[in-house]
Structure formats: C-alpha cells, structure tokens
Design a protein that fits this description.
5 strands, 17% helix
Length: 72
C-alpha cells in the first residue's frame, strides 16, 4: 500500500532571494524558507500557507500575487 501524500509548494523570487513555502500535514502547517544563493537565511513554521505569505510580505516585501504553485 502506497502512502503518497500530495503537498502544496509555492515559490517566489525577489531581488537575489528565493522564497519557498512547503505545506506539511494539516495538523502541522506550512514552512517558509528564505534563500540567498544556496544558503537558507530564514525559516519558520506557521499554521497556514497564507500566514507564510503574509510574513514574507511584511518582512521581505514579497508581493502576495508573486507566488507560483510549484507543487510536486
């Protein structure tokens, strides 16, 4: 029996930075990762994808409409 769980992933770019939001299990939430080059300079776990997007907007000025779905 296979246990393939489809998760959502979103990506956005601003200046020389890459932003990734990865959804985890519903009871866990979503992770926001911020990269400068290959280095992760910030990460956090939040209750939802929308909260991660708001944090990226507030802390890094990443526009809400800039996020692209890159789900696996």
């Amino acid at each position: 029996m296979s246990c393939d769980i489809k998760t959502k992933e979103f990506v956005s770019y601003r200046d020389d930075m890459k932003f990734i939001i990865e959804e985890d299990l519903p009871k866990v939430g979503a992770y926001l990762y911020v990269y400068e080059g290959d280095n992760c300079v910030f990460d956090c776990l939040q209750d939802s994808i929308d909260i991660c997007k708001e944090i990226a907007l507030e802390q890094y000025n990443v526009p809400l409409e800039s996020w692209k779905n890159s789900s696996r």
